[in-house]
Each structure stands twice: as structure tokens, then as C-alpha cells.
Amino acid sequence: MKKLIIIQIFLTVFLIYGCKSFKNDKEEKSCIAEQNSFDTVLDGKTISLNTISNKNGMEVSITNYGARVVSIHVPDKNGKPVDVVLGFNTIKNYLDSPDPYFGPCIGRVANRIAKGKFSIDGEEYNLAINNGPNHLHGGLKGLHNVVWDIDTVSNNNIILHYLSPHLEEGYPGNLNISLTYSISEDNELIIEYSATSDKKTPVNLSNHSYFNLSGNSSTTINKHILTISAGSYTPVDSTLIPLGIIEPVEGTPFDFRKAKAIGADLGLENKQIKYGAGYDHNFVLNKTYDDSLLIAARVYSPETGIQMEIYTTEPGIQFYGGNFFTGEITGRDGEKIGYRCGFCLEPQHFPDTPNQPNFNSIFIEPGELYHSTSKYVFSIVSN
Questions:
Q1: Which of 169, 303, 314, 346 is catalytic?
Q2: Percent of the chain, pLDDT > 90?
Q3: Catalytic site residue 208?
Q4: b (16+ CB within 10 A) / e for 16-31
């Protein structure tokens, strides 16, 4: 009888740990399959996924489809790796997503251009209308929807290249773009953009990652603590096109000069908040129009202790608070991406600049070098 009991206990333990081991193996294989599921061909070009990392536990995965950031893993306050950007496990999910802006390089002109029109030396150019009455983020097949060439890959660096042909999405000139992602040992992700054209053309490139520093796509970002180094912003009309003026943030919900919760002032009566259904506005950074790399924003999650600081050479940063997420999209963690569960901080020149004489120009001349750098620095803040 004792022997029978011992055998039964042994079998029970074996089944529990055997199943657990099998489950872990299955999960690991599933994870590898997810990686492999980026290996496909689109428009005759090969898509792949590459990961760069440092020795401090930071890993960033990049796919050349849209030159997009797929994931950023950084340690939280307990040393646990947390993925701080929203995204998907497979290339199919990116291709099928109703929102095409999970992590890509956006352009040729990031943000909105009024009525999809601008002129150069008296010649009018017409672009796709893909956001209400306006053009957004380079059009229907902007830089986010093309396959970039991979020039080089190392442990902590990846260089991508794309030649955007003359009149692609309506933009003049053959635009030759180089984009570098690199990681430092100080948990910095550096994104560097360079471009030249054979015709006068507008260029305004940025990255459109949706961040959630809690690592959970169903957790609101309204409790994140945000600081933006901006004493003014560009108010917009009801279609989110700038009015052409620059106004102070003081006394408005747009004053993030001192750290506050993202959702702190969303309940205030404000026409600009109403137009954007929340925050979807360009902030004018406290910097001169030069190539110096200065801090633009700082955001921190009390839940994980993860802080992200953004430094940029750009004069503005677009802050978007995830106002249009409806829960219809399932993220990589299997959770529905809920209302205001992701935010964007996009370093860039101001929206609709080609039509705004009061804003600094984004036109480059033939042979002139466009260059822009942004740096995302991750660290831990103690409560």
C-alpha cells in the first residue's frame, strides 16, 4: 500500500513538473516562431527582424518594414525586463493593423499638411488626403509602409537606407534617406536621420513609437508623470492644422514645464483639448534653431519606476495621448490596447510647415544635407 502511495505521489510530481517543462519549451518555441514570422517578402524585398542590445539588459528590435521599432526592453525598478513600446509579434499583425503607425519612421513629412497641398516656386504639389481633409505622415504608402534596405547590422547598431523616388506620394525629388538606430551602454537609443534630394523638397522625419512605460497595453498612460521643455505650443483648428501662431502654455492644460500626470488637466474646459480629443499638439521647445542636442521631454511610470528622457536637435515635439485607441487592437502582450493606453512624443519640425510662413522652413535644396538626431535615455526613478 505504501509503495502504491509513493508511486502515485511520484507520478503526480512528474506530471506537474513535466507539463510545466513542456509548457515552457512550447512557449520558447512559440517565441522563436514569432521572430521567424517577420521573415517574408513584400514588393519583391525581404523583410526581417534584427535585435540590438547592450550589456545592461537593454534590447531593441527593429524591422526594416517601415524602419520600425518593434520592441524596447529595459529593466524596471526590480530588474525585470519590460517592453515599453506597443507593437505586435508578427509581420502579419503589422500589415493587418488598422493603425499603421506602431513604431515606424514617418515621412517624408511627419504630421499634417493642410488639404494635402503645398507649393515650391509657384508649382503646386498634391498629396494623398488620409486624415480628414488633410495629409498625414507621408501619405498612404509613406516611409512607414515601405521595405527599407539594411546596410549594416552589429550588436548595438543597425543602419537602414531607402531611396524614395521622385513623386512618390506626390513629393518632388529622389530622396536618399539613411537611418541609424544605435544603443549605448548608458541605456540610450539614438536615432539619426540623414537625407539628400536632387530637387527642392520638404523633409521632416520622426519616429512614431507608442510608449507605455508600465509595459501593459491595457493600462492607462494618464498616470505617467510628464515634463515637456516648452514654454509655448502651436494651437490648431478643428482638423488639427496649426493656426500659424505660437501661444504660451502658461495657464493652459498644455503647461508641462513642471512635472505632472498626463491626465491631470484633461477634464478642464479647453477648446484645444476638445479639438484634439485630448493632447495631439506640437510643443515649441525651449531651444534655438541649431543642431544642439537638448532635452525635450521627460516621462516616468510610478508603477515600474522606468523613466524616459528625450533629447533632440529638432525645434518641436508632437505629444499625442492615445485618444483614438478604442480597444479593437490586440497588442503583443495579448491585451486590448485601450483608450489612452499609449502615448507618442515625436521630435520634429512643426506641422504644416510648408504652408506656414511663420514656421522655420523644412525645404532642402538639391544636394543639401538634411540631418536630425534624437536620443531616448532610459533610467530608473525611485519613488
A1: 346
A2: 87
A3: yes
A4: eeeeeeeeeeeeeeee
